[in-house]
Design brief:
Chain A: InterPro entries: AAA+_ATPase (IPR003593), ABC_ATPase_HisP-typ (IPR030679), ABC_transporter-like_ATP-bd (IPR003439), ABC_transporter-like_CS (IPR017871), MetN_ABC_transporter-like (IPR050086), P-loop_NTPase (IPR027417). The structure holds two protein chains of two kinds. Chain A has nine helices and ten strands. Chain A is of the alpha/beta class. Chain A has a single domain, classed as 3-Layer(aba) Sandwich (Rossmann fold), CATH 3.40.50. Chain A is globular, with a radius of gyration of 18 Å. By secondary structure, chain B is mainly α. The radius of gyration of chain B is 21 Å and the shape is flat. The N and C termini of chain B lie far apart (48 Å). The chains are: A alpha/beta, B mainly alpha. The structure holds adenosine-5'-triphosphate and magnesium ion (MG).
Chain lengths: 246, 218
Amino acid sequence: MSMIEFHDVNKYYGKFKALKNINLTIERGEVVTIIGPSGSGKSTLLRTINGLELISSGQLLVDNHDLADPKTDMNRIRKNVGMVFQHFNLYANKTILQNITLGPEKVLKVPHVKAAEDAERLLGLVGLLDQAHKLPSMLSGGQKQRIAIARALAMHPKAILFDEPTSALDPEVIGDVLDVMKKVAEQGMTMIVVTHEMGFAKEVGNRLLFMADGEIREDSNDPREFFRAPQDERAQEFLGKILHVD
Amino acid sequence: MQNFIDAYSWVNLRFLLEGLWVTIYVSAISVVLSFIIGSILGLIRYVKIKYLSMIVGFIIDLIRNLPLLLIIFFMYFGLPSTFGIRLNTVTAAIVALTVFESAMLAEIIRSGIQSIGVGQMEAARSNGLTYLQAMWYIILPQAFRNMVPPIVSQFVSLVKDSSLATIILLPELMYHSQIIYGQNTNYMIPMFVALAFLYFVICFLLSRLSKRLARRLH
Ligand SMILES: Nc1ncnc2c1ncn2[C@@H]1O[C@H](COP(=O)(O)OP(=O)(O)OP(=O)(O)O)[C@@H](O)[C@H]1O
Ligand SMILES: [Mg+2]
């Protein structure tokens, strides 16, 4: 059974159609990157998966639960689907350790000692064990984002959504965050990553979606091939632009 | 100078302190009640419950835009004539202050919660927390930290505003001082000085206390 299935999904903001007839199936363990111009609906697509945005029509199955079904418990979906945001959104009133343990303790009812042990393991994984007792405001952007990834991992989710995780970071720390994401991918996590990092899309991603105007215009199982020879003309135009910038 | 010495006689000072005591306990009860009621109203406005939030919003705006003096008059003179409810001066003053301050605090509390960015809520919900857990563990603690200074300055105004209840003959500090200088107009200036001193001391202590509280929360 697939991790995520979109069947003819549409999403409106008032009259504006932000997602148009999305059909998409994502299998467990896939690392899907999504690229596309600003306003193309990348964030909207991602946020429908954990119910931060509701779909207007069609069917969306996450871990075999129908999100449009009122009987579906959204909190249960969110337990299994983590999210990492562009602006980190670490809990400002909690220490780094507490940021990671809060979900496991309050949602999964893991005892404090065990949650803290697991948090320390994750802090080790992201290389920030020495920061455990600081407040988020004392960390740099790159460090915050690595903590945000640890916080998502602490729930032992089945999938993690990333919305431009490196776009708010200084260039010299982007690599640290991408390294952590790569480690997570190597452990077999299902990941859906909206990004402008073409290197990550090519090297870590095993599938690439190109979106424009609320549609998935290209869906490639070979990201390298996509970058070499995009089929869709909007994708050609888009790559032309960003390659000029590089 | 002699005026001051005479004005601050033992009997007069004791009478003033009795007034001070009424000021303090009327204020203290109103502070506690309006904090509870204001928090509930502020939350109702924040979470936007259909109709209820709108009605609450309307009432809050109405009260905030009335002079406190009018509300005091209404509680003391208006309630008996319109609803047949007769309140003694202390109760009328407490009710009036509580009604007025609850409305002021509700707005402080609502905007304090609103000032916490949506990102915190989205992160908490994505982390699997329920709406109530997200509010309790993440949003409210941060909002409260930001709200301490405006809430305290509202309480400081409450203490000062309680002097308006002198108009319904509440035996508080202001009223007692008026009785004293009513008997001898030479005592007027000494009484003003004493009032200024006493109000200053309570309000100053109140804000010092809150600064300490705010520092502990940070
Ligand atoms: N809450 C909202 N209300 C109305 N319109 C919205 C809302 N959120 C997004 N939109 C619109 O939907 C479209 C898609 O937005 P979305 O954020 O998904 O784009 P995006 O591809 O993530 O863009 P970016 O690269 O700039 O983040 C945009 O035109 C945006 O203006
Ligand atoms: Mg976006």
